[in-house]
Design goal:
Blueprint lengths: L1 E3 L2 E4 L2 E4 L10 H27 L17 H7 L5 E9 L5 E13 L3 E8 L12 E4 L12 E13 L2 E12 L3 E8 L6 E9 L8 E10 L4
Antiparallel strand pairs: 1-2, 2-3, 4-5, 4-12, 5-6, 6-7, 8-9, 9-10, 10-11, 11-12
Helix pairs in contact: 1-2
Length: about 220
């Protein structure tokens, strides 16, 4: 009797037992996988562009008040590397004058959440200024995030800033923990406020905060 890998030869009979060998992926399989990955990437890009194009259009009716952004347009508009800066002026919680700058950057962008790093210019060297905050995508901006927010749309306004002139929907944001902000949502810049007024915390009886953030610049990475 002869015995080899998976085969027994005995007399006039041959029994094939099979071999437990792994089949290496062929070059054609590898190319097909690569092509699929490229196709998926292009489809994702096309979906982002389509989301921006299908955003609610309010520019034709300056009296209409509605949220100008969708979750998809905010996510597509704020790609990783987007940077916004603001001029800051007003009074702090104790009523003292405030003059500063504010910078925020999208450090990560996936289907579910954004990762944002943000700080005042006066605190840019502090350790917390380098901390990355994760925020679930919504119809509001991840910049100036208000936790457990209630949104009330209050009107329309054209705002002129150092970054340009923006047609905006104005919204009042009330947070569950007392945060209160008024924001100007730029119709054609999903996820970016042309202006923000921080009214401080409504839970603090002596809080005198009234700080205005005015958009100074928008920088986006090359496509």
């Amino acid at each position: 009797m002869l015995r080899c890998c998976g085969v027994i030869v005995t007399g006039l009979f041959v029994l094939s037992l099979g071999c437990d060998s792994k089949k290496e992926p062929s070059m054609s399989d590898a190319l097909a996988k690569s092509d699929k990955a490229e196709t998926d990437r292009k489809e994702a890009k096309d979906k982002e562009k389509a989301a921006i194009k299908t955003a609610p259009k309010l520019a034709d009716d300056p009296t209409k008040v509605a949220n100008p952004w969708t979750v998809d347009t905010v996510r597509a508009g704020l790609v990783m590397g987007t940077v916004v800066t603001y001029g800051v002026a007003g009074v702090d919680a104790k009523g003292k004058p405030v003059t500063d700058t504010y910078r925020a950057e999208i450090k990560g962008n996936n289907e579910h959440e954004s990762k944002v790093i943000q700080s005042l210019g006066s605190a840019s060297s502090a350790p917390q200024a380098k901390q990355v905050a994760s925020t679930t995508w919504s119809r509001m901006s991840p910049f100036f995030n208000v936790e457990k927010v209630t949104v009330k749309l209050t009107g329309r306004e054209v705002v002129e800033t150092p970054a340009g002139k923006f047609d905006c929907v104005v919204a009042d944001l009330q947070g569950f923990f007392g945060a209160h902000k008024t924001v100007w949502m730029a119709l054609e810049k999903p996820g970016i406020y042309a202006k923000v007024v921080d009214h401080g915390n409504t839970n603090g009886e002596d809080d005198q905060t009234e700080v205005t953030y005015t958009l100074a610049s928008i920088t986006t990475p090359p496509a």
